[in-house]
Design brief:
Layout: H1 14-17, E1 26-29, H2 39-54, E2 59-62, H3 69-78, E3 84-87, H4 92-98, E4 107-110, E5 119-124, H5 126-140, E6 145-152, H6 155-171, E7 176-183, H7 192-204, E8 209-213, H8 217-228, E9 231-236, E10 247-253, H9 255-265, E11 272-276, E12 283-285, H10 297-312, H11 320-323
Parallel strand pairs: 1-2, 1-3, 3-4, 4-5, 5-11, 6-7, 6-8, 8-9, 9-10
Antiparallel strand pairs: 10-12
Helix pairs in contact: 2-9, 3-4, 5-6, 5-10, 7-8
Length: 331
């Protein structure tokens, strides 16, 4: 894991504003920005941890549009950054074009798969972590109705929703799971107003626990849940602190660990596809001072038992991405 702090608003400014040694690692944040308090911020946390522990520096770019992706990768590679980490599945297509042109540069993509000898593809078993928070949601619900708000309607987010529904149904076979996606374009990751509207609609249908896997849009979900007196579940980063007593837990996706590991190992980081699930501590749920009064010992014991059973293969959480289906019906 290796990182430096050089903020630039557009890829075109990289060659002018980035500083540091040529061997510095680099990171390209996805749309929504590094302070989205969710996916991008988890990546930023990993980079900062590396910088603080090593005293090293890293280059960074916050994308402002989809059109900047390829240009950002090329500018960083030409500037000598290595490895270059990219946060987000949308980076996959441009990376598949760029990677062959820079065979001596190691690229790391998080949430996407690119088959190239100099690319490390990091994916997470979101459905496994979501299963655990689905259990917590069902154990907390007093209405037997829980809900989910996703960001962009893509298989990745459906993995969250389906895992969540399976965990809830494992606890309460009669549970109702309501699921809505925010949109079909990248704008769906940064629309907290729409996230709030969807949450209000779900509350009107009886939901008293809502799980948001929607990037910046999720902030609107958590806000409305707090305002309306129901529980919410955060995602990617630990979001418990945002609304203490209202955020039941957060489904942790250790993007920070993936970034830290890449920066620490450097250009020699192992390439190929790497999967981070419960067994690798790549996903899980957050328990801290902000939600400890909400999660009972019995709930923790039940979830811990399920976690071990999933790792042992005794419980198999269906992965939506395998066939585009979910064994639990959602409304």
């Amino acid at each position: 894991m290796t990182m430096m702090k050089t903020l630039m608003g557009a890829a075109a400014t990289l060659a002018v504003t980035a500083t540091g040694a040529l061997a510095d690692p680099a990171i390209i944040f996805d749309l929504g920005g590094k302070f989205d308090r969710s996916f991008n911020e988890a990546a930023f946390t990993g980079a900062e941890q590396w910088a603080e522990e090593t005293g090293g520096s890293y280059r960074e770019i916050e994308l402002q549009s989809d059109a900047q992706r390829e240009q950002a990768m090329r500018r960083l590679a030409e500037a000598g950054a290595n490895p270059i980490v990219m946060a987000g599945f949308s980076q996959a297509t441009p990376l598949s074009v760029v990677a062959p042109d820079y065979p001596d540069t190691t690229f790391v993509i998080i949430d996407g798969v690119v088959e190239a000898p100099n690319v490390r593809s990091v994916i997470f078993s979101e459905h496994e972590g979501s299963y655990l928070v689905g259990m917590l949601a069902a154990m907390t619900s007093e209405t037997d109705t829980v809900s989910f708000v996703g960001g962009m309607d893509i298989p990745l987010i459906s993995r969250f929703a389906c895992g969540y529904a399976q965990g809830a149904a494992a606890v309460n076979p009669e549970v109702t799971v309501i699921a809505n996606m925010t949109g079909t374009t990248p704008a769906a990751w940064n629309d907290p107003v729409r996230g709030g509207e969807l949450t209000r609609g779900q509350i009107a249908q009886g939901s008293d626990v809502v799980f948001a896997a929607a990037g910046g849009t999720g902030l609107g979900v958590l806000q409305v849940a707090a305002d309306e007196g129901i529980f919410s579940i955060g995602v990617d980063s630990n979001q418990n602190y945002l609304h203490p007593g209202s955020v039941l837990t957060s489904m942790l996706k250790r993007v920070d660990v993936a970034v830290y590991d890449a920066f620490t190992t450097g250009p020699e980081v192992e390439t190929g596809v790497h999967v981070f699930g419960l067994a690798e501590d790549g996903v899980g749920f957050a328990l801290d001072e902000f939600n400890s009064d909400l999660i009972t010992e019995e709930m923790i014991a039940a979830v811990d038992t399920a976690r071990e059973a999933i790792i042992a293969g005794e419980i198999v959480v269906h992965n939506f991405s395998d066939d585009g289906t979910c064994p639990v019906q959602m409304q």
